[in-house]
Write a structure and sequence with these properties.
By secondary structure, this protein is of the alpha+beta class. It has 14 helices and 13 strands. Strand 10 and strand 11 form a beta hairpin.
Length: about 375
């Protein structure tokens, strides 16, 4: 959810404009969030501060961050100039984190929700940023014990960044369906494929799929309105599923559930990266892109939350219903020209069954939830295949 904002609103907005206009295309960074677990009970434990202390002086320290609650940790690739670099760093960062957590007798899990941990047992970490979020959101932030994967992609030009965000909105439900990994939550089988999205995006203000903006001036006017009306006091309080980041010249895609394996994280990040680059190229070449109304995108968003890759999505331009699998395959085909150009194609791979599908299949077979989650925990370690 980000660090505290140290600049004034005017300074933050001016900095963002300057950085986007002076930025470079298609750098990237990937962020992954993990639950911290007791190795015996697999319940969430509030031990983030111990990880911070143990990581001091290590290679991981600059790429380690807190994320709201003390039973969660985030790792970052850091800025990468190519996707191949990110693909190398995603499993490496997991290995570096495990080198910290193993001696502390902690386990990790990377799916969108914990199956049974109570939100009442989780402690907000003691930083100015998260104390502020606790102050303004209360119950809303307390309930957000969720875990995601975020991808930042460098985009040059302020208007171009807005237009890429507008275009990405159309594909957010498909990306969520592909990534869905959170079917168990608060001790219940939710029947959802992404309970994380229901908890996070439907409770937080300024969250989920945003409206389209005409250009940077239109977007900046909205952000200034929020500051001027005391609706926000930090730019990170725009929690949308895709946003132009005001501290870095990147478009940040935040729709996806956390991924159990490093292999799945790499493949999903590759698709997001290639899609963002493909849309930037389409904008440059003046390909027609319909910025679909939010009300229609919400229909697909709900379908992805409820049924994931087992369901159907609406082809909004064709006004027909297609399987989520077909939508995902069509998306891969759409990005291939740019994926080839950027060396991403070797990393593109749709899962035969994603985590939510695997969890639901095991549940249908009568496998206990503890055992399902135990397999998820085991799969965090790089080299694990499912």
């Amino acid at each position: 959810m980000g660090d505290s904002q140290n600049l004034t609103p005017a300074e933050q907005i001016a900095l963002a404009r300057e950085q986007f206009d002076g930025g470079t295309d298609f750098s990237l960074a990937v962020e992954e969030e993990f639950a911290l677990l007791d190795p015996e009970t697999l319940t969430m434990v509030n031990r983030f501060e111990e990880i911070v202390e143990a990581a001091r002086g290590s290679a991981l320290e600059p790429n380690l961050a807190g994320e709201l609650i003390a039973s969660e940790v985030e790792i970052k690739t850091g800025r990468c100039e190519t996707f191949a670099e990110a693909a190398r760093l995603i499993p490496l960062r997991r290995t570096q984190l495990l080198e910290i957590t193993d001696p502390l007798a902690l386990e990790l899990a990377a799916v969108g929700t914990h199956p049974w941990a109570a939100w009442q047992d989780q402690r907000i970490i003691d930083t100015p940023h998260y104390r502020r979020n606790d102050e303004i959101l209360k119950y809303v932030v307390w309930r957000n014990n969720t875990f995601g994967l975020h991808v930042h992609v460098g985009i040059k030009g302020v208007d171009r960044a807005i237009w890429v965000c507008n275009a990405l909105r159309n594909y957010l439900p498909t990306l969520l369906a592909i990534s869905s990994s959170s079917t168990f939550i608060e001790g219940v089988y939710s029947h959802l494929h992404s309970a994380r999205s229901q908890v996070f995006t439907k409770m937080f203000p300024r969250c989920g799929i945003p409206d389209a903006f005409e250009d940077w001036n239109d977007y900046e006017g909205y952000v200034r309105f929020l500051y001027d009306t005391q609706s926000i006091d930090e730019h990170t309080q725009l929690w949308w599923s895709v946003r132009p980041h005001l501290a870095y010249p990147t478009v940040e895609i935040r729709i996806c559930d956390a991924q159990p394996t490093a292999e799945e994280s790499v493949a999903l990040s590759a698709l997001i990266y290639a899609l963002t680059a493909r849309l930037a190229r389409a904008i440059d070449e003046r390909e027609p892109i319909v910025w679909q109304p939010r009300r229609l995108l919400e229909e697909n968003f709900w379908r992805a939350i409820r049924h994931g890759m087992d369901g159907e999505l609406i082809d909004l331009e064709g006004k027909r219903v297609v399987s989520a699998r077909q939508a995902a395959e069509d998306l891969v085909a759409y990005v291939l020209p740019v994926a080839d150009e950027l060396g991403v194609t070797p990393f593109l791979k749709l899962p035969e069954r994603n985590s939510a599908q695997r969890q639901q299949a095991l549940h249908a077979e009568g496998v206990p939830v503890f055992d399902i989650y135990k397999d998820i925990v085991r799969s965090v370690r790089p080299g694990t295949h499912v």
